[in-house]
Amino acid sequence: MSKLKAYELRKKKKAELLKMLGERKAELATLRVAQVTGGAPSRISKIRVVRKDIARILTVISQSTKAQLKSYYAGKKYKPLDLRPKLTRALRKALKPSQANKKTHREMKAIAHNPRRLYALKF
């Protein structure tokens, strides 16, 4: 079998990908047995290609799953942690601008009773 292409895998359904994954894992197991028993070098060199194919299939499955979840949670109030922006811990914990700009009742009273003073300066 030749090397799989990611763009071809993205066109397939998840069930097909899982079936392909099972086939590749079975093939890898037989290749490992051939390696231990001293099989042909051409078969042993195929191990790397099959391992990379398995990785490619798993990557496409996880990417498509994440894309579906992203579209499902778009516009919702709460999202799973892995779909939220990473940022830094300090930025995640910081107050949002709307929260930071809120004023207490006492502050509002002080602002109302003491408006900003305007001075007419002569030059």
Descriptive overview:
The protein is mainly α and 123 residues long. The chain is built from 7 helices and no strands. It is rod-shaped, with a radius of gyration of 30 Å.
SSE-based structural type: mainly alpha
Strand content: under 5%
Overall pLDDT metric: 93
Number of strands: 0
From the structure provided, what is the oligomeric state, counting identical versus distinct chains? single chain
The secondary-structure element order is HHHHHHH
Total helical segments = 7
Residue windows where pLDDT falls under 50 for at least 5 positions: none
Helix content: 55-70%
**Main beta-sheet strand count, sense and barrel state:** none
Spatial extent as radius of gyration: 30 Å
Distance between the termini: 88 Å
**Which descriptor suits the 3D outline?**
rod-shaped
Task: Record keyword descriptors for this entry.
123 residues, mainly alpha, 7 helices, 64% helix, rod-shaped
What's the SSE blueprint?
Blueprint: H1 6-10, H2 14-37, H3 41-44, H4 46-73, H5 89-93, H6 97-100, H7 105-113
Brief synopsis:
This protein is an all-alpha fold and 123 residues long. The chain is built from seven helices and no strands.
